[in-house]
Amino acid sequence: MTSVWKHVTQRLSLSVIALLLIVLLAACSSLGGTASSPTPTATPSPTPSPTPAVTTYTGDGYTISYPKDWKKSVTADQTTFQDSLGANALGVVVVANPDGVAKPSTVLEATLAGAVKGANMTNTSPANLPASVSLAGETWVQKGTTGTAGKGGASTSFEVVVFTTNHPANTSKTKLFEFVYAGPLVGSTLVDAQIFQAMLASFKFTS
Fold first, then answer.
1. Which of 5, 71, 78, 112 is geometrically suited to a Cys-Cys bond with 15, CB 3.0 to 4.6 A?
2. How high is the pLDDT of residue 197?
3. Strand partners of residue 148
4. Residue of 98, 112, 88, 84 lying closest to 178 (CA atoms)
């Protein structure tokens, strides 16, 4: 059982860290990130975006809709959706987890810790999120971190949110599903928060 847990956690952590490094580089570049502290100004409000045209992707045991102008990439365990600049991304990770040996809350903590380390985040604080969320008929554990993330001398205000569930619970066919969405902040809100929420709401299990 320990070997299964380690396998699940390692696969998720590696996938998520790879995702974050790509997003972080794009975010620092596209938003003109800087290593210096910003001058205090009035907090800007996110500008509502028009509802984008969407397309539906069928993955390993699920479907999800995403904006047509976002890029999709698929690896063995993870499907990643990124905006046209690559600065915002949502990753869906699916790993076999027979009998639900790896607990969602434990895997989430390990994934988030790896993400924070991989993105070189400093000045971190917990995101203001409920501990769980209902999605596609399952309860998912949820946690996020905000902070300053940097790469190559540039930095930006950044947030990472992870939530995880087992589906179906405690059977030989159980898989661990994990969402990770990440990107720069405008004020205290993810730049593409509305799009992320629409994508999550469209998610459905197919098995």
1. 78
2. 92
3. 122, 157
4. 112
**Tokens encoding 182:** 């990440």
C-alpha dihedral sign at 22, 25, 45, 145: positive
CA 206, CA 89: separation in Å to the nearest integer? 23
| Percent helix, percent strand, percent coil in the chain, to nearest 5 | 30, 40, 35
Q: Give Dmax over CA atoms of the chain in angstroms.
A: 55
Residues 168 and 25: beta-carbon distance below 8 Å: no
- Who wins on pLDDT, 52 or 185? 185
3-state secondary structure labels for all residues of 105-163:
HHHHHHHHHHHHHHCCCEEEEECCCCCEEEECCEEEEEEEEEEEEEECCEEEEEEEEEE
